[in-house]
Write a structure and sequence with these properties.
The complex is a heterodimer. Chain A is of the alpha/beta class. Chain A has helices spanning 43-50, 73-78, 96-103, 112-122, 138-152, 168-183, 195-201, 219-223, 226-233; strands spanning 5-14, 17-27, 32-36, 58-63, 66-67, 81-83, 156-160, 187-191, 204-209, 212-217. In chain A, 35% of the residues lie in helices and 25% in strands. Chain B is built from 16 helices and two strands. The chains are: A alpha/beta, B mainly alpha.
Chain lengths: 238, 374
């Protein structure tokens, strides 16, 4: 089986600092891969390179076997790759419901109102559906980011700390939504600082530090990896 | 702070909003904007329709019972309402502050004037489509690079483009230079009143359908609010911005053509004067940036006030001072414009957001040279 997402030697520097430095990995269909690493290790930049928000200096990204390295963001989205942003990037002067509809504007527009109602119920946003997105609390904003992903009915999903600051009960809701999408063969790449959450849901973990992948494997493997301990605690493990 | 009392207001209106929201949900099977339901229940819709019909009857029968003076005023209101609408499209909906909108007005005016010169002799209505095409092409050519700029930089670029158009008409022979062009005398003032009214009405219906009742409106507003996020939803932001810019450019071109035939004499000082853009900005801010009917309201109020000032005090600079005060009061206390008084509309952060963005551009520009964002 060929990989859904293949990343080869991807690199990008900002003003002499290599934010992402020769990253290569593959993600298989319906796999959930967690990406962890200290702040500034290049996780969010990696997402921005995968979605053409930034252009890479080198390397290649393939989605379903197609080279998308220099494909514009909107075409990548239309190819079935959906993402959330680390700092919620909502349409703040539109209502919550309109935000959801907008996510379907290039997709199933006719089905959008019905699907939006389902998503609003699922993410417990129905009571604020007609409020402006800019007036939501931080946790609700992340839920709405997740809601837009669900509206896009994506095949590949990049989640950037989507559960940060979200109430524990709603975290379970988000996890439920991820599992549900996966059951429909969606593939996930998840940046998350909460190790418990990643342990819960990820099939495999990638650990980044200083723009490079320092470890890869199951949760058990990477939590016993000396490189990981060094990256997280600053000292080599015993 | 005002954000606090907006929260309080919202809390006070909570239950009725929620009630309306549930009804809208159960009827949300069409793709129309049921999200607007809180203030447009069945009764609200009837009142609105009645108001619209009353307005249409008054507007259409005006020449039967009014005086020529008021016909002239009403023609002016229709003209400015249409122009303000076009500025609202690019700024209020697309989020780009254009300070060169008068350029398109001038392009339309000169197109009609040149084609109606005796050596060409085109009929009036045939000149308007030509003006539309020229303005649209000009908008694509200038918008393609300019729309890559943000906030204050876009404002400066568009201002410079409009100045370039004005300079061109001043030096070129076939535009009559600084002396301008004289058009054939047109039919009476009722004719121009109806033509202007119909043109403005078509522009409103078109913009309302495109921006408030279709996918295109969602695309445009998404790009305005957050371009990277819009792209992540699959929206081709570059294309959408150019489309919105073209839409906002063809309206002043048509109105400029009608206006030129109406006033029968144009020169760079009259139809390419920066003060026209300034007026539009003020009208839209006062009426309500980003709201469908805000510009019409702002245009009507300010045009009438301006006329009243002219007839009472003659040409006076006190009008400018008064407009300055109005703008300050509106931006500080009614950032959503006068239309927001009726509670029809939600409080947005549009004015502060756009002005803030522009201010940030200058700040980062000063700090980091040309900047351009990370």
């Amino acid at each position: 089986m060929s990989a859904v997402l293949e990343v080869t030697d991807l690199g990008r520097s900002f003003g002499g600092i290599a934010a992402v430095d020769g990253v290569s990995f593959e993600v298989q269909q319906a796999e959930i891969v967690g990406i962890i690493g200290p702040n500034g290790s290049g996780k969010s930049t990696l997402f921005n390179l995968l979605t053409s928000v930034h252009k890479p200096d080198r390397g290649q990204v393939r989605l379903f076997g197609q080279d998308i390295t220099r494909t514009p963001s909107h075409k990548i989205a239309r190819a079935g790759l959906s993402r959330t942003f680390q700092l919620p990037a909502l349409f703040v002067n539109m209502t919550v419901r309109q935000n959801l509809w907008t996510a379907a504007v290039e997709g199933d527009w006719r089905g959008a109102p019905e699907l939006a109602n389902e998503v609003l119920e699922l993410l417990d946003l129905a009571h604020v559906s007609d409020e402006l997105a800019g007036s939501l609390s931080g946790g609700q904003q992340r839920l709405l980011e997740m809601g837009r992903v669900l509206m896009q009915q994506p095949r590949v999903v990049l989640l950037d700390e989507v559960a940060a600051g979200v109430h524990p009960r709603l975290r379970q809701t988000i996890l439920g939504a991820i599992r549900e999408l996966r059951s429909r063969d969606a593939t996930f790449l998840i940046i998350e600082h909460d190790l418990e959450l990643t342990q819960d849901i990820c099939d495999r973990m990638i650990v980044m530090d200083a723009g490079k992948i320092v470890a890869e494997g199951s949760f058990e493997e990477i939590t016993h990896d000396p490189h990981v301990m060094e990256a997280y605690l600053g000292v080599p493990a015993e | 702070m005002s954000s606090d009392d907006s929260v309080r207001k919202r809390a006070k209106r909570g239950p009725e909003r929620r009630g309306a929201a549930t009804t809208s949900m159960s009827s949300a099977t069409t793709t129309t904007k049921t999200a607007e339901a809180p203030t447009t229940g069945p009764r609200g819709r009837t009142i609105r329709m009645a108001g619209l019909i009353a307005f249409a009857v008054i507007a259409l029968t005006l020449p039967l019972w009014s005086t020529p003076y008021w016909i002239r005023i009403a023609t002016g209101v229709a003209l400015w309402a249409g122009l303000a609408l076009s500025w609202n499209v690019i700024c209020g909906y697309a989020g780009y502050i254009s300070f060169g909108h008068v350029g398109f007005f001038g392009i339309g005016a000169y197109t009609t004037a040149i084609l109606m010169q005796p050596d060409h002799g085109w009929p009036f209505f045939a000149t308007l489509p030509v003006g539309i095409v020229i303005a649209a092409v000009f908008a694509v050519i200038t918008g393609w690079p300019a729309l890559r700029l943000k906030g204050a930089y876009f404002a400066i670029a568009t201002w410079a483009i409009a100045e370039a158009v004005r300079e061109f008409t001043t030096v070129a022979d076939w535009t009559g230079g600084a002396g301008g062009l004289t058009l054939p005398i047109g039919p009476g003032s009722n004719y121009f009143y109806y033509v202007m009214l119909i043109a403005a009405a078509i522009a409103y219906v078109l913009c309302y359908a495109l921006l408030e009742r279709s996918r295109f409106g969602y695309r445009v507003k998404a790009v305005r609010d957050n371009e990277p996020a819009a792209r992540a939803q699959g929206i081709d932001a570059t294309k959408v911005k150019i489309q919105a810019y073209v839409l906002s450019a063809v309206i002043p071109a048509v109105l400029g053509g009608i206006n030129a035939y109406w006033i029968t004499f144009i020169n760079p000082q009259s139809v390419l004067n920066t003060i026209i853009t300034d007026q539009l900005v003020v009208m839209v801010l006062v009426g309500g940036l980003g709201h469908a009917w805000g510009p019409a309201f702002g245009a009507a109020v300010l045009f009438l006030v301006n006329e009243q000032f002219l007839s009472s005090f003659g040409s006076s600079t006190s009008y400018i001072a008064m407009v300055g005060v109005i703008v300050m009061l509106v931006v500080l206390f009614l950032p959503d414009g006068v239309v927001s008084i009726w509670g029809r509309s939600r409080r947005t952060r549009l004015v502060r957001q756009l002005l803030g963005r522009a201010a940030d551009d200058f700040r980062s520009g000063n700090a980091a040279g040309s900047g351009g964002g990370r």
